[in-house]
TrEMBL record:
<feature type="transmembrane region" description="Helical">
    <location>
        <begin position="347"/>
        <end position="371"/>
    </location>
</feature>
<protein>
    <submittedName>
        <fullName>Sugar transport protein 8-like</fullName>
    </submittedName>
</protein>
<keyword id="KW-1133">Transmembrane helix</keyword>
<dbReference type="Pfam" id="PF00083">
    <property type="entry name" value="Sugar_tr"/>
</dbReference>
<dbReference type="InterPro" id="IPR036259">
    <property type="entry name" value="MFS_trans_sf"/>
</dbReference>
<dbReference type="InterPro" id="IPR045262">
    <property type="entry name" value="STP/PLT_plant"/>
</dbReference>
<feature type="transmembrane region" description="Helical">
    <location>
        <begin position="201"/>
        <end position="221"/>
    </location>
</feature>
<comment type="similarity">
    <text>Belongs to the major facilitator superfamily. Sugar transporter (TC 2.A.1.1) family.</text>
</comment>
<dbReference type="InterPro" id="IPR020846">
    <property type="entry name" value="MFS_dom"/>
</dbReference>
<keyword id="KW-0812">Transmembrane</keyword>
<keyword id="KW-0762">Sugar transport</keyword>
<feature type="transmembrane region" description="Helical">
    <location>
        <begin position="318"/>
        <end position="340"/>
    </location>
</feature>
<feature type="transmembrane region" description="Helical">
    <location>
        <begin position="80"/>
        <end position="99"/>
    </location>
</feature>
<feature type="transmembrane region" description="Helical">
    <location>
        <begin position="21"/>
        <end position="39"/>
    </location>
</feature>
<dbReference type="InterPro" id="IPR003663">
    <property type="entry name" value="Sugar/inositol_transpt"/>
</dbReference>
<feature type="transmembrane region" description="Helical">
    <location>
        <begin position="282"/>
        <end position="306"/>
    </location>
</feature>
<dbReference type="InterPro" id="IPR005828">
    <property type="entry name" value="MFS_sugar_transport-like"/>
</dbReference>
Length: 508
């Protein structure tokens, strides 16, 4: 019998069990959490470039935009406009720590339910907003939804998945993010021509997936791992039987109970996370999220319509180009699902660094040489920019996008997994916030130099990957310490035994 990694990280013989219809349903419903995250990422750029929206909430930006002589790079530079986009992420950052506690105390399903309430409330406030405060408040509440959703969904997916499909199902989260971004782009394309309330439709249509998530979250089950962790042993067993569609679950069930008992020995996962032996996965989880954001991806995802207008497209063409990059994003994520367990994580990350470095540098040079503060690129040059952006997005979508979430979910030992993952989620939100808040000002001050700034970061992350990121492909989660960290030329120095630390272990 082949050995595989279980959903909770144990190394045990492969278990019986099919992919039941019920599991598929649960996966799709929960992945709507990712879709809503993606929708929120994708919708704001289009909305903030719509004149009706600007006239209502940001008249100063609108006036500036109308001035033909206004500096290309600066026409959208307004800290309040950026605050509209970025407020969501700062709220999500705070929420993810609360969500991590809710997740372990009350379960993944409850966390998702709370998240979907936030989504519905946030959408209603935003779409009905009649002043800026209301719209920003709506966005903050949506941020709570994102914080709860992003903490619960990846854990939910990997705990529900049969072991052999864990990696692929984990990337479904990212796939749904990209689908959300794409749908938002398409909707913006159509609503931008609906006056004066197109922006309300764009923001309000998030209500559809939010309602699906809300209603759906009452039909999905709790994960067996979470039930067992919370001492609902019989229910855990019954759920496992249901989702695997077989009675032959004893081995998997026993290994879940054993892993949960071992994890229960650790009294304070956050304190354990501060110990030297937790440093390698912690540093890698945080650094990968920081790097993911410093690829500059969200400069494109949030502000693509703005950016494409900056290089000279009309607003419709700019929104259409955004749809094109959205399609590239979705299809390239599929490539990752197929290759990640074959080619390995490092190959994908390194290849993408080369691809992204070249494209960012060439875009920077093109703008530097041809886009003056007033005037625009020729149409051929503008098309070349769109093509380069597509090649760049392609590289991100099969590497730093999905792997930024996958690697932190597979490198922590069980006892620090939820806490460690919360650190990863909140670092992602922090740096997403920074980019969302700073990008338009950076574009205004650094002009084309912003692309060289991101290219320099890509160089740094390539070097980090080359020297400090170990390959985790095919390594059972429970063997990570022995087979990865203790063997690594650099990280092995942290692998000292701190397991018997009085602070961490409950005395038996
Ligand atoms: C990132 C988002 C990004 C998206 C693009 C995700 O993995 O966390 O910040 O916008 O990928 O597809």
């Amino acid at each position: 019998m082949p050995a595989v990694i279980t959903s909770h990280g144990g190394y045990v013989p492969e278990h019986d069990g099919k992919i039941t219809f019920y599991v598929i349903l649960c996966v799709i419903i929960s992945a709507f959490g990712g879709l809503l995250f993606g929708y929120d990422i994708g919708i704001s750029g289009g909305v903030t470039s719509m004149d009706d929206f600007l006239i209502k909430f940001f008249p100063a930006v609108y006036e500036k935009k109308k001035l033909v002589h206004e500096d290309n790079y600066c026409k959208y530079d307004n800290e309040y406009l950026q605050l509209f986009t970025s407020s969501l992420y700062i709220a999500a950052l705070v929420a993810s720590f609360v969500a991590s506690k809710v997740c372990s105390k009350f379960g993944r399903r409850t966390t998702l339910q709370i998240g979907s309430f936030f989504f519905v409330a946030g959408v209603a406030l935003q779409a009905g907003g009649f002043n800026l405060a209301m719209v920003v408040l709506g966005r903050i509440i949506l941020g709570f939804g994102v914080g709860f959703g992003n903490q619960a969904v990846p854990l939910f997916l990997s705990e529900l998945a049969p072991a052999r499909l864990r990696g692929a199902l984990n990337i479904c989260f990212q796939l749904f993010i990209t689908i959300g971004i794409l749908i938002a782009g398409i909707i913006n394309y159509f609503t931008s021509n609906i006056h004066p309330h197109g922006w309300r439709i764009s923001l309000g249509l998030a209500g559809v997936p939010a309602m699906i998530l809300l209603v759906g979250s009452f039909t999905i089950c709790e994960t067996p791992t979470s039930l067992i962790e919370r001492n609902q042993i019989d229910q855990g067993k019954a759920t496992l039987r249901r989702i695997r569609g077989t009675d032959n679950i004893d081995a998997e069930f026993d290994s879940m109970v054993a892993a949960s008992e071992a994890a229960r020995q650790v009294k304070n996962p956050f304190r354990k996370l501060m110990k030297p032996s937790s440093r390698p996965p912690l540093v890698i989880a945080i650094v990968l999220q920081v790097f993911q954001q410093f690829t500059g991806i969200n400069a494109i995802m949030f502000y693509a319509p703005v950016l494409f207008q900056t290089v000279g497209f009309g607003s419709n063409a700019a929104l259409l180009s955004t749809v094109i990059t959205g399609l590239v994003n979705v299809f390239s994520t599929l490539v990752s699902i197929y290759t990640v367990d074959k080619a390995g994580r490092r190959v994908l990350l390194l290849e993408a660094c080369v691809q992204m470095f070249i494209t960012q540098t060439v875009i920077g040079m093109l703008l530097l040489l041809h886009l003056k503060p007033a005037g625009s690129l020729s149409s051929t040059e503008a098309i070349v920019v769109v093509v380069l952006v597509c090649v760049y997005v392609m590289g991100f979508a099969w590497s730093w996008g999905p792997l930024g979430w996958l690697i932190p979910s597979e490198t922590f030992p069980l006892e620090t997994r939820t806490a460690g993952f919360a650190c990863a989620v909140s670092s992602n939100m922090l740096f997403t916030f920074i980019i969302a808040q700073a990008f338009l000002s950076m574009l205004c001050h650094m002009k084309a130099g912003i692309f060289f700034f991101f290219a320099a970061w890509i160089l740094v992350m390539g070097l980090f990957t080359l020297f400090l990121l170990p390959e985790t492909k095919g390594v059972p989660v429970d063997s990570m310490v022995e087979r990865v960290w203790k063997q690594h030329w650099f990280w092995k120095r942290y692998m000292i035994d701190d397991d018997n630390d009085d602070d961490n272990v409950i005395k038996g």
